[in-house]
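ugh ok fine here u go
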Amino acid sequence: MTHDGGRTFREAWIAGVNKHYPGQPKPGYIAPWEDTPDWEREAAAAVYDQVRAFVTATGGATSKLTRDQKGRFVALCWIGQIFKHFPDPKPSYVADWHDLPDWQKATDADIFEHIEQSV
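structure:
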């Protein structure tokens, strides 16, 4: 697994946070790739690969999904990575879609669409 996709994921995350987060985001939310922990780089690359594979496997039919469906896919893939890297994560790290703040839902949908457009 290369980290090129992870960097793309991270850049889309930062763009989404800057666009949707109410107020000033936490520094860790917008930290550049170089300052991102190794586990998070690996997770970002894995989720990028999962979204890309999903888009490819459907022959691009993901364009028919709603923004909520796209965002939920990203969120669920990310939760899987959290469980992979943390044996007992805080509940807020693995919150279900309906419990996420609106800014995070919009950011996750933006990430999916950014990856989808690059396939």
